Amino acid sequence: MQVLTEKTDYYFRFIEEIEDRLDYVFNHPSLDIVNTLQNITIYQVRGLGGDINGIKIIDNLTSGSTPKNLQYDEEGVMFIRANNVLEDYLDLDNVIKIERSFHEGILKSSQLKKDDVVVTMAGTIGRCAMYTLDEEANINQAIASIRVNKDAILPEYLSLYLNSQFGQLNFLKYRHDVGQPNINLDEIKKIKIIIPPLYIQEKIVEKILTKKQEVIKAINTIALQKEKVLNTILENLDIGILDGAQQYFF
Q1: How many C-alpha atoms does 105 have within 13 Å on its Cβ side?
Q2: What order of strands is seen across the sheet that includes strand 96-98?
Q3: 21, 74, 153, 202: least buried by Cβ within 10 Å?
Q4: Residues 196, 204 contacting (CB under 8 angstroms)
Q5: What are residue 51's DSSP bridge partners?
Q6: Which helix (H) or strand (E) holds 205?
Q7: Is 208 a domain residue?
Q8: Over pLDDT 90: what percentage of the chain?
Q9: Assigned domain for 36 exists
C-alpha cells in the first residue's frame, strides 16, 4: 500500500466507477484487476461469499474474540493468534492455551476444525494457512476462520490462492487503515477467487507443493555448502571442524 501512495500523485474516477468507499487505495487503478479477473481467465470467478454452479463456496466464516476474563491453561485448548499464522503454515511452537470451559462455552462459535483456512484480519492482514490437525483449537479476534464447501473449492487451493498475488491484491483493496489495519468478515466475503474445476485445483496444489519441496531442498543444499566452505576456512586456519556445538566470533 505504501508503494501505491508514494508513487501516485493523483488519479481520477468517474462517479459510476465508485463503489461504497472513497478510500484512496480501494479505488486505485492498479487494483482494477481485482474486479476484472474474469477477463484474464477461462475459469469462473466468484466472491468467497457466493456460490458456484449453485453450490455455496464456504459453509462458515467467523472470527474469534478474547474475553476479558479468559483463563489460560498449559494443558488446555490451543488459542491461535495472528503471530501464529505465517504464509501457508501455522507456527504452533509457542501457541498459548485456554481453559476448555471457554472453548466449549463463550468461544464455541469460533472453534477451529481440521481443514479450516485461517486468515489474519487485524494488524498484519492477509496471511493465510490451513489448519491440518485433528486437535481442537480456537482463534482470537485477529483471525478469521473459513470453512469451505469441498464440493466447490479445496481448502488447500484456497489457502494457496489467498497467499498468491491475486489473493493479496484483494486484501490490499479491501483493508482499512484507520488506526490498526484491519479487514472485516463482510469484506472477506467479497474477495474474488478464480475457481477452476476440482481436478484442476488438485493439480495446481500438487504442483505448488512439489515446487516448495524443491525450494526447501535447494535451501538445505545451500546451507550445507556454506557449512563446507566455513569448515574449509577453519581447517586451513588449524582451528577445527564445526560440529554444531562450537561457536566462533565470526
Answers
A1: 11
A2: 96-98, 72-80, 137-139, 111-112
A3: 74
A4: yes
A5: 56
A6: helix 198-236
A7: yes
A8: 61
A9: no
Distances (CA, A) of 89 to 28, 35, 64, 82, 120: 31, 28, 19, 12, 12
Q: d(Cα 9, Cα 64) in Å, to the nearest integer?
A: 39
In this structure, the answer to whether residues 155 and 208 fall within a common structural domain is: no
Phi, psi angle pair for 137, to nearest 5°: -155, 165
Residue showing cell 468478515 = 185
My answer on whether 141 and 235 are in the same domain is no
At residue 213 the predicted structure's pLDDT band, cuts being 50, 70 and 90, is confident
The burial of 117, by beta-carbon neighbours within 10 Å (0-12 exposed, 13-18 middle, 19 or more buried), is given as: buried
Give the number of domains in the chain.
2
**What's the distance, Cα to Cα, between the start and end of the chain in Å?**
38
Neighbouring-strand partners of residue 80 = 139
Q: Is residue 21 part of a domain?
A: no
Cα 248 to Cα 234: distance, rounded to the nearest angstrom = 10
Q: For 152-209, how does the pLDDT look when each residue is reduced to its tens digit (9 = 90+)? A: 999 999 999 999 999 999 999 999 887 788 999 999 999 999 999 999 999 999 999 8
> Which residue range forms the structural domain that includes residue 203?
198-250
| Identity of residue 57 | I
